[in-house]
Amino acid sequence: MVFVGVHGQWGRIDVTQPDLGCDQSRESIYKPTSPAPLTCYECDWRVHLVHRTHEAYDLWFLRHANNAPACAAKAAGEGMQHHLLKLDLAHHARTAGWSAEYEVAALDGSWRADVMATSPDGTRRVALEAQMASIAITDIEARTDRYRDDGIEVCWFTDRKTVPWLDRVPAVQIARPDDGGPVQVTAGPARFVPEWCEDRHKCGLCECSDCGAGVDGPLPCGGHGRWQPADAFSLEKFVGAICANTTRPHRLRTRPGAGAWRWITRPYFLLEDEQVQAEAGRHQALAWRRRRQAAQQATEQQHHAAIEALLQRQAALT
């Protein structure tokens, strides 16, 4: 079950598009009087066009003819949920005004995108990856790095209940509602909820291990805000936000969760940045007070030492 094939005369075709992506019609290759000259883009084996309905989906896909060899394209298309998710991702990217192609590979074979979405001006490419099977964290990080090295953005999508790599790469978790409603993004996006002391110049609360114990007086407030999961929303809205560049992957910089990847909007980045700067200011104030306190203690010690030396000299003279 694949979406992309090669026509002997038209070249690469995408059967999810009514015009096959080449200004031709599906009907011209669907059950013709003689088999259409269609082959798999990966193994060159003969394929034929299939039409099925599944729930609310009107499915068009290519199926390998009998006795086909082992094929990476065929393997990539296995699984109905994987198949449907790729359809959704491409459809939502196209709805946002972008082009979307299936099974796009690097020239050197270092990566193959389930769906490659490209902006109208060609300046941005985003690999939309349907990762329904289990995968090692090191493998998905390496695949993400290969995209980044080629200047390609990436987002991983999964419906798995347990996702140990969700924090390690730009990714989201999705769910299909039982009532057949739109696919929802249930984890991955986040929002920052700020919290400050009423008087930012005086803060007696700090959750870090170095809270300023032993330093006299309150320190400036470093902020007590935190990242929280965003409420679930539609996959269409999320893909549209990626295309519009209004949501971006971001490594969190505040505790708890510092270092984890999340999808955020710019206002939340600015709120977090305000806290990051305030926390840095708090640490600077703490370091300055400790230096001043250490200098005062050194001065006092020198003063007491001088007095002690004077008393000893006076005692020696009597």
Explain what this protein looks like in three dimensions.
With 318 residues, the protein is an alpha+beta fold. Helix content is 30%, strand content 25%. The protein contains five helices and 16 strands. The chain has helices at residues 72-76, 80-95, 137-149, 235-244, 266-317, and strands at 4-7, 11-14, 38-40, 47-54, 57-64, 99-105, 112-118, 125-130, 153-158, 171-175, 184-187, 190-193, 226-229, 233-234, 248-251, 261-264. The strands form five sheets. Strands 6-7-8-9-10-11-14 form a seven-stranded mixed beta sheet, sandwiched between helices. A hairpin with a 2-residue loop joins strand 4 (47-54) and strand 5. The longest helix has 52 residues, at 266-317. It is elongated and about 130 Å long. The N and C termini lie far apart (107 Å). The model has no long low-confidence stretch (mean pLDDT 90).
State the share of residues found in helices, binned by percent. 25-40%
Output the radius of gyration.
Answer: 30 Å
Largest sheet: 7 strands, mixed
β-sheet strand percentage: 25-35%
Number of strands: 16
Q: If helices are DSSP runs of H or I spanning 4 or more residues, what is the number of helices?
A: 5
Terminal CA distance = 107 Å
Mean pLDDT: 90
Oligomer: single chain
Low-pLDDT windows of residues: none
Shape: elongated
Give a topology summary.
Layout (H helix, E strand, L loop, with lengths): L3 E4 L3 E4 L23 E3 L6 E8 L2 E8 L7 H5 L3 H16 L3 E7 L6 E7 L6 E6 L6 H13 L3 E6 L12 E5 L8 E4 L2 E4 L32 E4 L3 E2 H10 L3 E4 L9 E4 L1 H52 L1
Parallel strand pairs: 8-9, 9-10
Antiparallel strand pairs: 1-2, 1-3, 4-5, 6-7, 7-8, 10-11, 11-14, 12-13, 15-16
Helix pairs in contact: 2-4
